[in-house]
Amino acid sequence: MNALDQRTLVPEILDRLAADDPRALHSRRDLRRINALMFQAPIMASLMRKFMAKAPGRILDIGAGDGTFMLKVARRMTRDWPKVELTMLDRVGLVTPELTADFAGLGWKLETFTADVFDWAQKADAGTFDVITVNLFLHHFDDAELLRLFSLLVRRAPLLMATEPLRAGLALATTRLLPAIGANDVTRHDAAQSVRAGFRGSELSDLWSAAGGRPLEERRAGPFSHVFAGAASMPAKDVP
Q: Per-residue pLDDT for 169 more than 50?
């Protein structure tokens, strides 16, 4: 059996570091560059254009990090979607006032929540959205946790779109080249673990279906990314 045939989860170093730890700050800068090299923002923007017939009123981005990923997406979408309410959720508060101002300059209103995604999604007052976006976040959870998460999120929006690591040999081999962009030890370790915990085939579709949703698309996108789009089984407005 190939070592990448099954997902393997190992705790990532960045998750255990304080937000202001110098190694964490360096690694987050690395992640911004990695997102760019993986073309994650244009991939997400293309997913949104494909599956959303009209501009969303409200977007929820989970595992939002420092928010720079969604800012790049917003810059690509703002011409057609000039007014959006964006909610960013992450367990660590990293969004700066400057970033909030950047969104405001695009006509997007930003709200942030610092909370565990499970705790937040279980609350009856969590609200509903037109779409939930996820970038490089789902691979942190095992299948049982993903099924639980999807069971909660399927009630919060009619659409979920995700851009995740592709679990493939080339992607894993490429992580060995990260020193060339100045990536530190945290990034080098976590990038390889992200690939091993990433997705292929219909793994996310199967879990989304088990949670009561309807898969729309799941595929690889380029050499490093795996994308998923799923619809809810019922309109979010019908959920209490």
A: yes
